[in-house]
Amino acid sequence: MTRGELKEILGDRPDANLRSKQIALHLYTRNVDNFADMRDIPQALRDELAGRFDVQPLSTASHKTSIDNVDKLLVHNGDHQVYECVLLPYENRVSCCISSQVGCPMGCKFCATGLGGFDRNLTAGEIVGQYLTLQRLNEKRISHVVFMGMGEPLLNLKNVVKSLRLLHDEVGLSYRHLTVSTVGLVPQIYELAKEKLPIHLALSLHSPLDEVRNRLMPVNHKWPVKEVVQAMKDYMRATGRKITIEYLLINELTDTPEQAHELARIIKGTPNVVNLIPFNWVDTGEGFSRPSNDRVRAFRGILASKGVNVTQRVERGHDIAAACGQLAGMHKGKFARRAPSTVLPVVG
Ligand code: SAH
Ligand code: SF4
Question: Residue 33's domain spans which residues?
Fold first, then answer.
């Protein structure tokens, strides 16, 4: 709930303004997970609210910690529709990766979530709840949030926008530290631009060629490369943020020199960052594999030689299947997954 909504549920109490401020502070800044601990609120009001609301609706169904210190939680709200969130501590900051939907209907061929089907959208409370739950595991403040867990955030735009505002207005995070990743839904990109939130929007492009992207991502039949890249450029113009492109490297499919050149060409002249993500192994039945480090370096080299700013996704949590695209609620047992036998070296 926003502060305005908190005030509303307090009705016409004369102290509604003050109490809503206090409750918001407890919920979002102090991360208090029960009404009993909100000691500056009168007991009678705490009891009344405890009877009407639940301030910690998320239950943790599973909690795993990887050898490289990544925590992956599988959470639910009692309905056994589980979704995943991941805590990523780095040397100089703490980040987290959260879900926007239970499952995902977009059906990308390389993604465990996409292969597992779709259940429902998450509410803003469930989205912010993931942040708050992860924050309780860590002493240092989580300063960065990426919407790269389960689901397509722009299919759940209203709740995602509300959660972005809550993370900014109430939790106190900088919009610049919030990243929403999208498969590329053109009308929703324009809708999000209208909100004028200075967040990062990242486009999962994965190939500059329609014939390749069509094979990987059904969405491309509806919104092909040219249209989605144009939408990102317009988004950039409206918000002043750089274009961020996520690029999945699949061996001998998306990692060819031709595609590196074409990618550089279509984003030329626009401030941009290309984030390379070598394919994380998921048994998709498509026979996809991860390129060798040499092929990754060659692709990266071509982009850099064309003046593109290239970074490479820091990959962690392989041993607990917490890496990108591997979040699928394994309890469903819909398909098999394995962690690669080695954690590959990380660049950038
Ligand atoms: N639905 C949004 C955000 C969630 S997916 C989107 O698609 O952008 C987050 C990122 O993980 C996307 O860039 C997605 O393409 C990537 N991803 C999915 N499956 C992957 C896999 N097997 N290996 C590496 N990255 C993957
Ligand atoms: Fe959905 Fe993103 Fe996975 Fe595609 S990559 S299926 S959009 S979660």
Answer: 3-52
Q: What is the pLDDT of residue 243?
A: 83
Q: Which ligand is nearest to the CA of 277?
A: 1
C-beta of residue 111 within 8 angstroms of C-beta of residue 339: no
Mean local confidence (pLDDT), 4-9? 96
Angstrom distance (rounded) from CA 226 to CA 240: 21
CATH code, domain with 136? 3.20.20.70
Q: Which residue's C-alpha comes closest to atom 18 of ligand 1?
A: 325
Distance between terminal CA atoms of the chain? 38
Q: Is the Cβ atom of 278 under 6 angstroms away from ligand 1? A: no
Q: Is 324 a catalytic residue?
A: yes
Q: Do 157 and 110 form a contact (C-beta atoms < 8 A)?
A: no
- pLDDT band with cut points at 50, 70 and 90 for residue 329: low
Say whether pTM exceeds 0.90: yes
Half-sphere exposure of 141 (CA within 13 A, CB side): 11
* Total tally of structural domains belonging to the chain: 2
Cα–Cα distance, 265 to 306 (Å, whole number): 8
**How far is Cα 180 from Cα 155, in angstroms, rounded to an integer?**
12
Q: How many CA atoms lie within 13 A of 252 on its CB side?
A: 3
Q: Which residues contact 1 (CB under 8 A, 6 or more apart)?
A: 9, 125
CA dihedral 228, 230, 234, 236 (to 10 degrees): 80
